[in-house]
Specification:
globular, two-stranded parallel sheet, 2 strands, 46% helix
Length: 104
């Protein structure tokens, strides 16, 4: 986990404690009130970069605002290198877009 924190510090120029406003500005939850379109979220159950609790918080906020969303959770970390999983995720994305555009 420390390598990921170090990576974030290098990207942002400091830690969340050093630069709280910058981290807040870059957080998707900051802009939750602006979400108008349906949202599809894939989430790795073991993602160290974006822990599943952060995903749950975001989805809870969407639900509170009646923003339609769908989620797909998979048993991996930040992305999957399994070809079958990648194909499944692309199919989920295509079907989501088709449904949202009234094509299916």
């Amino acid at each position: 986990m420390e390598p990921l924190r170090a990576f974030d510090r290098s990207l942002f120029g400091g830690s969340p404690e050093d630069l709280p406003e910058l981290y807040k500005e870059c957080s998707p939850i900051t802009y939750i009130d602006q979400v108008r379109a349906p949202v599809l979220i894939w989430a790795g159950e073991n993602d160290p970069r974006c822990p599943i609790r952060q995903i749950d918080n975001y989805l809870d906020s969407l639900a509170e605002r009646n923003v339609p969303y769908e989620q797909y959770r998979y048993d991996a970390g930040h992305g999957s290198l399994v070809v079958a999983e990648t194909i499944k995720q692309v199919a989920i994305e295509v079907h989501f877009v088709q449904r949202m555009l009234g094509m299916k």
